[in-house]
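#data-curation
PF: Archiving a pair of folding outputs for the training set. Convention for this channel: one message per protein, sequence first, structure tokens after, nothing in between. First:
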Amino acid sequence: MKFTFIIFIASWMFVTASVQKKGPNVITTDIDNFWNAYDSICITTDSLKQLHYIRTLYIDKGTPGLHGFMKAKAYTAEEWVKVIRRYPKFWRSIRSNTYKVKKLAPEFGPGIDRLRELYPALKPANIYFTVGALRSGGTTQDDMVLIGSEMITGNATTDISEFSPGKQKFLGNYYLTDPIKNAVLLNIHEYVHTQQRRHGYNLLSQAICEGACDFVTELVTGKKMPLPYMDYGLKNAQAVRKKFLAEMHNPSWDGWLYNAASDNAPVGDLGYYVGYAICKAYYDQQKDKKAAVREIIELDYGDSTAVNGFFKASGY
């Protein structure tokens, strides 16, 4: 009886360890479905047939992640058909790259395990690689990480000649970073979003909401986000801080978040850097680092009292 009990305990420990070490659930079936729809769309010029193909071969067969992406970004069948027809060179040049994400799944496990060490309350989330309509590299919805594969798999060889000058500049700069090499960082950033309570209500709160994900990603990987806003922010920290402090209570985050570079914004998404800097300053002030990580992730970004208290405690 004693021997049987020992065997039972040993078996339970093995199963428990196996479950704990299981990597995140990474789903890529939307990529194959998109290209099946794409091939059918390309053999006809009938727009009604093209809409039928994108609906029946892609959307109707889509994963919960694709449907979540559509809801989050307001993607429609009409928009997909439009971008497929308008940018044939782009789609032909990006196709082989999108299949490469299937090999990334094993790379996510160690990062998520490390995130769980830093934040033991981590809730599970599924990672979906979809194909969007060139408006988002990644977002989240509930317990889903949603990635736009056409955005994160571009590189310097991707043909962007069909786009407007502004779009060419944006995509060209982004693709020069070879974003697929940083897919693990992007996924951890988005994974952290799935743990947050809600989004911000003004520039300060939303910048911290985004910057928190960048900062926790750095704690997990030891790497800063290799994007222009981070480089620019670190090199121009005081000037960026001064400008941000003057605008941080604005209800709009135009010029700071989800924007491209312009005459008024030297780089896009500079608010991500500021939020990162605020979270880093807060973390550095705290003696209990694990508690600090929990407070950063669980901060109620929709609560002005909580956000302002966090900001004040950071000393930024």
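PF: Second:
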Amino acid sequence: MCNVSVITIFKRRHKKVKECLNSLINQTLPNTEIICIYKEENSDIDRFVKETQEKYNNIKIIYKTKAQDVTAKNKALEEAQGKYILVMNGDMCLEKTTLEKLYNVQERNDTDIAICGFNIIDINTNQLIHEGLNNKFKEVEEINGKNENFAYLNLDGGNKLIKKEIARNIKFQNYDECQDEIFILSCYSKANKISFINEQLYYKYEDNSNKNLKNQVQIKDLKDGLVEVKKLYKDAGKYEKLKNMLTFIAFTRIGMRALIELTVTKNGDLKDNIRDVMNYLDINFFEWRKNPFLKLKNVPRKKYWIAYTMYKYGFQQLFIKIYSKPIEKGNKLLII
């Protein structure tokens, strides 16, 4: 057994593969393993990983086919030797002390997950888009739904160290382009306590332009995945505690962002899309209408409250038209 296993998937579209792997091999925490997943025919990636592997004996490779993301990730979970798991991709990087600090806080507090602060950076301009945690959490927090800041956490795996037995129990599910988000939310169903480090130790590089909008299939997968997470919470007896968090995520990701993405990409009629989304929310996450996490005094950005108010009173079309205009012109997608 080793201290930590990092599972990272590399794809041709990722622009920070070298920076990602270099950030992992330079970690200060000893006794770690790095499991790299990618398609063998990605010759540039394969060449770089193998050259690095010759210098470091803690790198493993799992090849995948186009349709094997989930299979390869779950194989990596089964083969992982680490006490803890961290999942990331080729557009994410870690500070050199990230794993050491996450590991130490896990060991010190005996928690199920450890989370550090993060920076999200526009990959096209290198500008900072968003940062967290901004001292909104105590070092140890129970997952009891009382801290509204859980709803505003990023859903990436790169800043979250998870006990291996929890990760193996949950496994990855076949949801296109939102596998990690659904995986992280699902892990909360098996966790009771989380350690937090209020330092920005993780960097995610994101294409935040209108070239990176979800399509109908990806949005459907996200909708299905959130419903599956709700079922997991109910089965674990945690839904009543976590419903405000999950409902906030459903409202902002589906009600706000997905509707705007469908509008900008001209996928379907606006009225039909609004009707479909509102039916989805009211059937699966009806608590959104009285969610305290969406009140003005609680939201991290006023646009959430504006959307919430306009949606409640039937002005969804107006909200969508206002917020889709700058995105149609090629400006950054800063809705979430």
